[in-house]
Amino acid sequence: MLISPNLPRFAPGGPGIEPRWTRGTKVAVGTAYSTSSRVWYTLDYGCVTEVYYPTIDSPQIRALHSCSRTKTKRTQEQ
């Protein structure tokens, strides 16, 4: 596929929204036990607030959502 150099290069729906990051308070920072891990995370009162990859100074997410199933197979989102 050839791309014309005269066409603007925006992602679909781009250029996107303004960057917004979580609050600055942190109570913990962590990573995997393995020394080869390149993922770090921060916590604030039991919640993951930021995830960093491939270096600890490169935040990569704005929000992290988890999904779990109960014994009755109902899905719960957080």
Describe the structure.
This protein has no helices and 5 strands. It starts with 27 loop residues before the first strand and ends with a strand. The chain has 78 residues and is mostly beta strands. The model has no long low-confidence stretch (mean pLDDT 75). The strands form 2 sheets. The protein has a 3-stranded antiparallel beta sheet with strand order 1-2-3, with no helix packed on it. It has a two-stranded antiparallel sheet with strand order 4-5. It has a domain at 28-77. It is extended. 4% of the residues are buried.
Please provide a brief summary of the model:
The chain has strands at 28-31, 40-44, 47-52, 67-69, 75-77.
Instruction: Identify the strand order in the major beta sheet.
Output: 1-2-3
Low-confidence stretches: none
Main structural class: mainly beta
Number of helices: 0
The ordered string of helix (H) and strand (E) elements is: EEEEE
What shape does the CA trace take?
extended
Could you tell me the number of beta strands?
Answer: 5
Estimate the strand proportion.
25-35%
Gap from first CA to last CA: 41 Å
Helix content: under 10%
What is the arithmetic mean of pLDDT? 75
Radius of gyration: 18 Å
Characterize the largest beta sheet: strand count, sense, and whether it forms a barrel: 3 strands, antiparallel
